[in-house]
Each structure stands twice: as C-alpha cells, then as structure tokens.
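Fresh eyes needed here. Have a critical look at this protein's tokenised backbone.
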Amino acid sequence: MGLKYFGTDGFRGRAGETLTVEHALKIGQYLGWYYRELLGRPARCVIGKDTRVSSYMFEYGLSAGVTSAGSDAYLMHVTTSPSISYITKVDAFDVGIMVTASHNPYHDNGIKIFNKDGEKMTDDVLARIERYIDGELTMPPCAEVGVCKDYLAGRNKYIGYLASIPRESLRGYRIALDCANGASSMIARNVFEMLGADLTVSGASPNGRNINVGCGSTHIEALQNVVRESHADIGFAFDGDADRCIVVDEQGHVIDGDGIMYILASRLQDRGALVKDKIAVTVMSNIGLVNALSARGIGVVSTDVGDKYISRALVEEGLSIGGEQSGHIIVSKYENTGDGILTALMVADTLAERKCPASSLTLGLTILPQKLVNIQVPDKDRIMQDPRVQTYTEEANSKLSDRGRLLLRKSGTEPLVRIMAEGETIEHCDEIINEAKEFILSLNI
C-alpha cells in the first residue's frame, strides 16, 4: 500500500487545510521520539523553511514537536532545501526537515524530510509517521524537554561550500538570476557575488505571498526578458526552495533540465569523470537528449518520474549525474539531492571554462517537439495493466524508431492516463496522441 500523506516530494497541501500545524507538530513529535529511542540520546534535528507566510507556522510546529519529544531543534530559518540536505549530512544531524511547497503557489506548503545522509527519508519511516498522525501509533510522554537553537552557521557553511566548487572566476560575466521570491533570494546572490559575477537579480523581494508569482523556473518568460534587456551572458531561474534550475542563454532561449544534463554530462566525459559513461534520466526526458548522448557514447538509465528515483538510480548504479526536465539535477560528487544553485554554478563554470556563448553549450543537442495530454478514464490501473496497452506502446515506438516516442503513464493522484508524444513536429505529436487516445478509449475499460 502506498503512502497516504507523503508523495514523491514530501507532504504537500493547502496550508491550514490539507496540511495543518497539527500535522507539523505530530511529524516533529514522531521524529524527535523515534530518533531519541533509536539512538539512546536526544536527536539533533535541523529545520529550514522557504519564504511563504505559512512557513513560520510550520517551522514553529515542527520545533515544538521535536522538543516536546525530548530532542533538539536547530533552526536555519529561510534557506534552501538542498542546504538542509547538505548540512544534515556534513554536520552530523540525525534528521533534516524542510518546510516548502517548492514551485507551488504561496497558499500551499509542504514538509520534506531527509535522513542523516541528506537523502529523502525512506518510505518505512514515513509510513510510521503517517500512522502516528492518524492515531494508529502512540508514544509515552517524555519527561525531558529538548532545546531549540538558531543555526545560521549552517547556512553560512553551505554558502561557502557552494562558492568553493567552481574552478573558474566569473569576473566579467553578466549573469541574471531569478530567485522566484523564494529561498534562494539571499543565498544565490551571495554565492555569485563571491565569484565576481556582474549580477542582475530579480524575484528577490519575498513578502510571504509572492513566491513563484510570475517569476522563477515555472515562469521562465520573466528571466528571458531580463536576459535580453540586460544583455546578460546567461541567466538562471530557481523555484521556491531552489532545488530546481532552468537556464536562459544569451539569445533568450530556454535550456531545460535535459539541456543542462547534456552540458554537464559532456563536461564530465571530457574530463574523464563521467562514471560508466552513463547518466540517470526519467521516462519524461526527451529522446533528443538520448540520441545526442548516444552520439557521444553516453548511455542512460531511465527511471520513473521523481527526483527520489533519480537519486536511487545514482546510488544503485554508482553514476555521476542524473536529473529531470524540470531542472532537478543531482551531481553525486557534491550532493545527494537536486540543487538549483549548484547546477547554475556548474553551468556558469562550464561557460567560463569554454569561453564561448551560452548558446554554444548545447551544440549537438536537438530536442524533439514534445506534447502531453491527459485523458480521464474510469479505471487507470486496469488500463495500464492491460497487456494490449503494452503491446500497442511497443509497436508504436518500434514504428517511430528515432523519429519520435510514445509514453503512456497513469496519474498518481487523479483518474487520468497521461499520453506523452515526441515527434518531428507538433503536428506529428498530435497524430501520435490522437491515435493513442482512440486506442485507449476503444478498450472499453
């Protein structure tokens, strides 16, 4: 049975309704109690939050829960999700917690949990948290009360770590940053300034309600305009908690996660540092990326959609890099989770190393037109388990060869089948989708 509250990227919902302060309190209580019992001492829990108005409420709820269970809460305050992952690991915390709903609007919020290695928490622990939330598990009252401490030193250590990674100076480069009025608003500026970049920064005036509003990686047109108007050499847009990055080249063209993976995988291969000459991608990555990597002798390991599956593949296969179209990129040498600012730094470092226009970084990569359509069905599970569907998909892809691709997936939360097509043109994608739609509806399931 799947998880009830926690999805592929944490517990997320409308603040005060589907995700309440009582949920936060119980999550904190269970984690504080669980790790205290497991370790035989008060657990050390580090907590961060993004800039949403509700994030303070959840931060305090989590802190109260952790300390009421006799463990200690260390607050990094407004910071990024990857910074919590990093600090949890390097400063020997037992668990890391991030309050964020990532790219969602401000009225939503969420809670992400990391284990001591900075990886997304395992499902078995999340399942026990859910049972505690629902009253199926109880715990004895704790006679001891933990402490709550500020831990801004963790954020400063993370900034210093990021600044130490690039090999090249960015002095003389005009760089535009769109911080989505989110968690990267201060951190990204500080890091790029330390490296000497000439910055134009937008989306860096959070007020609690403007996170992701008309800015950031989900509204890339805002950064495109800034890059053109400021004549920037390159631009980087982050999402609310800065675990994603989307790039805009000097001409104002978008380079998504597929393009970023091509740039970084090529760079690592040139240095002899691309382990096994493979990267991890999700099933949504464009066939154009697969073809371009293949031309360089680079293979792919394909996973389901979600950065936790990419992370798992990197560990199991021992690979250097993986990611998603959305800009979740994981470089295993440096971190265990997607980090938008790190991704931006590595692309900027590549630009400075090659001394070429940003648009030249993706030479050799041709992205095929891609289109996604959802159709409502009475029983998505029966449809996707029907052997006729697998046969149809295999035959369609065999016919398309390297000219395109058909992918059928069920929605994780709605009664929908998602039809994704790639083709030589958008019209070709429409043809693939329409044929697949007719086939699915003809099954009478």
